[in-house]
């Protein structure tokens, strides 16, 4: 679980995060949503330890970051997996080597063991027989699976995903969402996902925080988001024409 208390972050005198308090639960897919520029990435980067908060605290499974010794912080870094928006695979390494890379960084495994482990994880993300392919030789959806496999290679306690669906067709996007959720449940990971995609929110938004102008404007679940009257949330949700039509149809009793 990650507990964030009154998190503040400014750049050049401009306050971007204005005191956010939120909980991201263990074994769940926790989503951060909000309009462009609302502070989602800055929030995520604070949790990843890439930015140092100006105020407030981030507590990982009961231990606050600012109270950790250097060794504890280093250990925590090895327990975080990251799935980037554009997969960010190493172009010059094949699929298997991409997954062996974090295994080499943080483990003392022999090469043969790393290769075996990489192939086990590839099997888990339903990618077999592609291990010797280069990233440029596989589809966007397959690249995302490799990136997910790499992100979970070291059995992270925390998994961070920045728009995991961007660039994918809706069907492939749903497959990736479901895979992230299944792995989150079976490995009891605290997963935090930034998304713009309302389909993903509906599919896997077990907890949702909605940011507006650097503040937490609403929190709830995917069952609650379509029922709320919070204007900021409804503006965001129904900015999609499809959802607007669904709401009109519901109001008209269809
Ligand atoms: N390193 C930085 N230095 C200065 N300003 C920054 C930095 N990173 C982000 N910002 C500013 O913080 C604000 C919030 O940016 P952020 O990237 O968190 O938004 P976002 O909600 O993730 O948007 P998007 O959905 O478009 O990715 C923006 O005004 C941005 O310019």
In whole angstroms, how far apart are the ends?
Answer: 41 Å
At the first level of CATH, the class of the largest domain is Alpha Beta
Total beta strands: 10
Helix- and strand-based class? alpha/beta
Key traits:
254 residues; alpha/beta; Rossmann fold; 2 domains; four-stranded antiparallel β-sheet; binds adenosine-5'-triphosphate
Reconstruct the topology from this structure:
Blueprint (H helix, E strand, L loop, with lengths): L1 E10 L2 E11 L4 E6 L5 H8 L7 E6 L2 E2 L5 H9 L1 E4 L11 H12 L4 H14 L15 H12 L6 E5 L7 H18 L2 E5 L3 H7 L2 E6 L2 E6 L10 H7 L3 H11 L3
Parallel strand pairs: 3-8, 3-9, 6-7, 7-8
Antiparallel strand pairs: 1-2, 1-4, 4-5, 9-10
Helix pairs in contact: 3-4, 3-5, 4-5, 5-6, 6-7
Give a structural overview.
The chain has 254 residues and is α/β, with parallel strands linked by helices. It folds into two domains: 2-79 and 156-251, P-loop containing nucleotide triphosphate hydrolases (Rossmann fold); 90-155, no CATH class. It has nine helices and ten strands. Strands 6-7-8-3-9-10 form a six-stranded mixed β-sheet. Residues 11, 16, 34, 36-42 line the site of adenosine-5'-triphosphate. Adenosine-5'-triphosphate binds next to helix 1.
């Amino acid at each position: 679980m990650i507990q964030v208390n009154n998190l503040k972050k400014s750049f050049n005198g401009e306050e971007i995060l204005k005191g956010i308090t939120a909980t991201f639960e263990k074994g769940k897919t926790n989503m951060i949503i909000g309009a462009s520029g609302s502070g989602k990435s800055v929030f995520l980067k604070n949790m990843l330890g890439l930015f140092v908060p100006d105020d407030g605290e981030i507590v990982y499974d009961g231990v606050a970051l600012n109270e950790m010794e250097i060794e504890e912080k280093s250990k925590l870094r090895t327990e975080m997996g990251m799935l980037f928006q554009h997969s960010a695979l190493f172009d010059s390494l094949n699929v298997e080597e991409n997954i062996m890379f974090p295994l080499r960084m943080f483990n003392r495994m022999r090469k043969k063991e790393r290769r075996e482990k990489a192939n086990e994880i590839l099997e888990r993300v339903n990618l077999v027989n592609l291990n010797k392919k280069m990233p440029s030789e596989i589809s966007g959806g397959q690249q995302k699976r490799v990136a997910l496999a790499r992100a979970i290679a070291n059995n992270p306690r925390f998994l961070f995903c920045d728009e995991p669906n961007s660039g994918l067709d809706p069907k492939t996007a749903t497959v990736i969402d479901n895979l992230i959720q299944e792995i989150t449940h079976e490995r009891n990971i605290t997963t935090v996902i930034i998304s713009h995609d309302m389909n993903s929110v509906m599919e896997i938004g077990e907890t949702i925080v909605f940011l507006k102008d650097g503040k937490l404007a609403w929190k709830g679940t995917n069952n609650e988001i379509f029922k709320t009257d919070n204007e900021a949330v409804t503006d965001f949700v129904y900015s999609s024409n499809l959802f607007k039509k669904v709401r009109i149809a519901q109001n008209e009793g269809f």
